[in-house]
Design brief:
single chain, two-stranded parallel ribbon, 11 helices
């Protein structure tokens, strides 16, 4: 066989994989476009649903829930953004299925059993984070922001010793409101992926429970920075995000430790793990510490 034939034979599987990847990507894009078109057709009801946190806070303050367009094209771009978010959420299960069908043939049976739960848990955790942001965090944030209004019972200028010299009333842009709400939803949805990501890395042996515990103080600083970057500049929202993400970090340590325990039990059952050797290694380590 010539060198050219060997090169052709070795490149054939790569070409097949690239062709399959191309097919999976096309299927995913088509599913996303279908979901986007479907959501664009009902963009107004979806947007009205997304305004619920704002309307709730305004109703408690005795105000009407009114948003405005500040440019002629703003309504169109609001519908596009709503359809983009809705199309992604609708198509995500199918996109995940295409990812699974692409990688599954190259996995062993045990690897398939290990990877599939994470594929299922990822969209669930994203929806859990998005729901937490929409129903808990967003109303608190808008209540904080709208507390800086200045107006009387009838919308007149306030008078008195501590009153403002003019009435300052919220008249929000629909696009700005949607941008901020989507930012909340996506930020919390991604943060809720932390246990899934770290547990998967622990299963692959990339991180350990002890290692995650040892860098806990650095994780706290990183989470504080993350809370400052992905949330508006109000203390309440940042504290909520920090508390939630740090709690997820601790849960991740617990899940990684469970993964390590199961791996150790499996190795022991297969005869690859010797308790006597482990004890000898531990004693050797203690002797070294004593000598130091």
């Amino acid at each position: 066989m010539s060198q050219t034939d060997e090169i052709d034979d070795s490149s054939a599987p790569l070409i097949e994989h690239l062709a399959e990847l191309r097919s999976r990507l096309i299927h995913s894009v088509v599913a996303f476009l279908i979901g986007m078109v479907a959501c664009f057709a009902v963009a107004t009801p979806i947007f009205n649903f997304l305004t619920a946190p704002l309307c709730q806070v305004l109703a408690e303050r005795g105000q009407d829930c009114d948003l405005i367009f500040i440019s002629p094209q703003e309504g169109f771009f609001v519908a596009i953004k709503v359809s983009l978010l809705g199309g992604f959420l609708l198509a995500f299960p199918y996109i995940g299925l295409q990812m699974w069908r692409f990688v599954a043939p190259g996995l062993y049976k045990s690897e398939k059993g290990a990877f599939l739960p994470f594929l299922v848990a990822s969209p669930f955790m994203f929806l859990l984070g998005a729901g937490f942001a929409f129903y808990v965090v967003t109303p608190l944030a808008y209540d904080f922001f709208l507390g800086f209004q200045q107006f009387g019972a009838e919308g007149e200028a306030l008078t008195g010793e501590a009153a403002a010299p003019l009435s300052v009333v919220f008249q929000g842009s629909a696009q700005e409101y949607l941008n901020l709400t989507i930012k909340f939803i996506v930020a919390f949805g991604l943060c809720f992926q932390l246990p899934v990501l770290l547990t998967l890395m622990g299963k692959a042996g990339l991180v350990s429970a002890d290692g995650l515990g040892n860098v806990r103080k650095y994780a706290v600083v990183g989470i504080l920075v993350l809370a400052a970057l992905v949330t508006p500049p109000d203390v309440i929202t940042q504290i909520i995000l920090f508390t939630v993400v740090y709690g997820l970090y601790e849960i991740s340590i617990f899940l990684v430790r469970r993964v390590e325990t199961k791996r150790e039990e499996q190795l022991r059952a297969d005869g690859y793990y010797d308790d006597e050797d482990l004890a000898d290694a531990a004693m050797a380590g203690l002797d070294e510490e004593d000598n130091k």
